[in-house]
Amino acid sequence: MAIFDELSPAQRLKMASTKAGRISSYLHDVVDLHESNEIIQYSPTLRDQIPRSYAANAYNVFQDAMQRYEIVRICAFWDFPSLDNYSLLTVDALLDHSEIPDLVSARAKSDWLQIDIELVGQDKLAPADKQAADEALAIMRERDATTEANNARSVLQEALAELREIAKSETLRSVKNARNKYLAHTLESTREERRSVVAPMNHGDEGALLDRTLRIAGKLQLAIAGGNVEWEDVRRIARREAQALWGSCRFAITD
Q1: Which DSSP letter does residue 206 get?
Q2: Angle at 86 between CA 82 and CA 92, to 5 degrees
Q3: Which sign does the torsion angle of CA 133, 138, 139, 141 carry?
Q4: Of 74, 87, 121, 132, which alpha carbon lies 20 to 30 A from 48's?
Q5: Report field, pTM of the whole predicted structure over 0.85
Q6: Is residue 249's pLDDT more than 60?
Q7: Are the C-beta atoms of residues 228 and 28 closer than 8 Å to each other?
Q8: Torsion angle, alpha carbons of 214, 74, 233, 63, to 10
Q9: CA geometry: angle at 229 spanning 179 and 241, to 5°?
């Protein structure tokens, strides 16, 4: 994209790495919100405690607000590319350069070669044996570093392929249209609807979109920053925390 044309490939990769890291950080908050919504929206934990009452109206407002905020936050990761946006489409635009895959491979290889590896008992070997061990270790390090470089390139390709698939999907189009029409604005019709028919968002689409967003963010973080977020562990902890709170809530509605 033109807004990134003045950046060198190295600058683009550095900026993409920074943005991918921040996206992962923000996604932690959305995971926490989603796991609360799994209880608030989709389980009877709270709902079955609320009888037909004035209180039920207040609960519906709370339930609706929680879901709407999750939709808004998930869509933010799919906003249009911009220097200011921490969105996956911005990361994609930054990485859309012919030299980026080679830079990613080179960084992964360099990082691996910087790891200090020593064979057990190597310091006790005779000089001739130590030289042979050093040569064997160097060959092994070069082989493993090359494997890491190739893996980084493959993971990057997989992440960008899935990212671009979702960017063109009807699910994302529907969710973003709902965000734009009802949540971020109050519109009679959106630009998307004026171009062509947009299917309504389905209940639960936000969860499916979050699943794929986490997968892509994890792959990008691994490929271009060398880090790895275990999103299943993050979700498990968030689920436990949400259950600890909402599972302990008791309502005694009298009006």
Answers
A1: H
A2: 65
A3: positive
A4: 74
A5: yes
A6: yes
A7: no
A8: -150
A9: 70
